[in-house]
Amino acid sequence: MSIIYKVVSVVVAIVSISLFGIIKGGTYHSPQCTLFNIGCPKRAVVEGYTKPKYSKIKQVYQKLFDDGEDVASCFAVFENNEKVIDLCGGYADGINGNKPYRESLQNVFSSSKAVTGIVISILVDRGLLKYEEPIATYWPEFAQGGKGNVTVSDMLQHAGGVTWLDDLIPFDLISSGQRQDELATFLAKQKHNFNSVRTTAYHMVSGGLYLNELIRRVDLKHRDANQFIQEEIAGPLNVEFTFGLPLDKEDRFSSFYEYPKLKFLVRLLPRIMLNIPFLPELEDRAVFKSFFNETSIARKSIKIITNEPEDFTNTRHWRDLTCVTSAGGFTNAVSMAKIGHIMALEGLPVDGVSFFKNEKAVKQANAFAENEFDHTIVKNFTRTHGGFAKMLPDSDIIGWAGLGGSLNVWDPSRRVSIAYVPKAKGFGMGFDGRSVALYKAFEELY
Ligand SMILES: *[C@@H]1O[C@H](CO)[C@@H](O)[C@H](O)[C@H]1NC(C)=O
Ligand SMILES: *[C@@H]1O[C@H](CO)[C@@H](O)[C@H](O)[C@H]1NC(C)=O
Ligand SMILES: *[C@@H]1O[C@H](CO)[C@@H](O)[C@H](O)[C@H]1NC(C)=O
Predict the structure, then answer these.
(1) Where are the annotated coiled coils located (predicted)?
(2) 311-330 in b/e burial notation, b at 16+ Cβ within 10 A?
């Protein structure tokens, strides 16, 4: 009896100490590291440039690493045509690696949507597209299935009626990037998800495929989004942003560091599934809960391609896709912040390069649309006409954010653009603790 009692006590003690370690420690620190300072990762030192005014950001950023809240990432800010912050920390080749993360090109998922929106605004400025015009004007076959009056702006605002696809896209139809006409035929056939009634429901993956085809139709040289960006944006600004990762840049890919499973199970899962009264409401709890529901809109919106492995994000197959302009962007923070500066300056040249003939299209793109309930995200979500959205708490800064924590936003009233690109997947949709902490530190110094 007393032996059993002792064994049970020891087990209970070990479980409690481990739970304490899991709950208390930094997100990316193991319980052993938190409790006994054993097995902690190699220290990641934040390095890079800040304008003297913003030098304190470096300490805030360093603390995120030291506290185990970040593993490897970069944070960059442009202000009034000047790079004012360009910091990175951690290693590209693993938590105890040697290769500085700075050289990496990372998939930024939905932060890509902001770049696609910028391409569209440039085409609007050139008179090749109008936000309020039905997509069918430029792509007649799109009118099928009750989509005849879906406008360009509806699609950008995630009210295009194609949140999910009834038939999944065969992987070989999109993998080579060479069958764009067939893909367009496939996409055009999809019937309106909500019987032609305008309904806002985040187009997690699909929207970017439709916008890519639209860009290809109206561009005078019939370039797709990726080609357009290389020639008209990334080249002139001397930055890196591609849809898909070209093979010659493959060695720059830094595979994702997954959100620790134990921490997810202990810290987050109970808060997602249950309404725990004494804890603050988890941001976006409703949508995370709906991911566990096979028939929810969120689930249907994420899976639109056949033969995708469960964890497709670290696969070369995924990096081959150049047409998924809603999620397939590969870049780094300094590149993305410079691209975002196009919208932050609302028509003024960026680093001497002019993107707009006048400020009408860019102002229209940045202007807030009506606040609407989103049936995928299951909450109200403030968007702009050009397909951007509020992505930070208590602020009017717009842009987009991506799975795992990337951020691509700008503030025209201050001529500021901000980007954050992490290797470690965080948890949240936009409101990632790391980018929010860096943004708040910037805000205090501004
Ligand atoms: C299209 O027109 C129908 C009928 O006039 C209307 O109910 C629907 O909301 C419209 N859809 C969009 C996307 O504007
Ligand atoms: C799952 O999602 C469907 C479609 O949105 C909804 O009707 C159903 O109530 C959900 N089930 C649960 C258990 O929440
Ligand atoms: C949420 O969106 C609905 C329309 O979809 C709107 O009527 C309502 O006012 C919005 N709520 C807030 C708090 O903005």
Answers:
(1) none
(2) eebeeeebbbbbbbbbbbbb
Question: Which residues are bridge partners to 16 per DSSP?
Answer: none
Structure tokens belonging to residue 399:
């842009």
List, in sequence order, the alpha helices (H) in 38-89.
Answer: 56-66
Between the CA of 296 and the centroid of ligand 2 the distance, in Å, is 6
401 within 8 A of 407, measured Cβ to Cβ? yes
Q: 355 Cβ partners below 8 Å, 6+ apart?
A: 122, 125, 232, 233, 342, 347, 349, 362
The C-alpha atoms of residue 147 and residue 416 are separated, in whole angstroms, by 37
**Which atom of ligand 1 is least distant from the CA of 146?**
1
Backbone angles phi, psi at 110, to 5 degrees: -70, -15
Distance CA 55, CA 254 (A): 27
Residue range 316-340, pLDDT digits in tens: 989 999 999 999 999 999 999 999 9
Of 196, 199, 200, best ligand 1 pocket probe by most atoms within 8 Å of the beta carbon: 196
Span from the CA of 255 to the centroid of ligand 3 (angstroms): 39
Q: Tell me the per-residue pLDDT of 61-71, one tens digit each, with 9 for 90 and over.
A: 999 999 999 99
Distance CA 336, CA 83 (A): 12
CA distances 5 to 11, 17, 83, 291, Å, are 10, 18, 64, 42
Cα 205 to ligand 2 centre (Å): 21
State both tokens at 261.
Answer: 């499973």
Report the pLDDT value the prediction gives residue 311, as an integer from 0 to 100. Answer: 75
Please give the pLDDT value at position 431.
79
pLDDT at residue 309 tops 80: no
pLDDT, tens digit (0-9, with 9 covering 90-100), for 192-209: 999 999 999 999 999 999
Long-range Cβ contacts of 80-83 (<8 Å, 24+ apart): 80/415, 80/416, 81/341, 81/345, 81/348, 81/350, 81/351, 81/415, 82/51, 83/49, 83/334, 83/337, 83/338
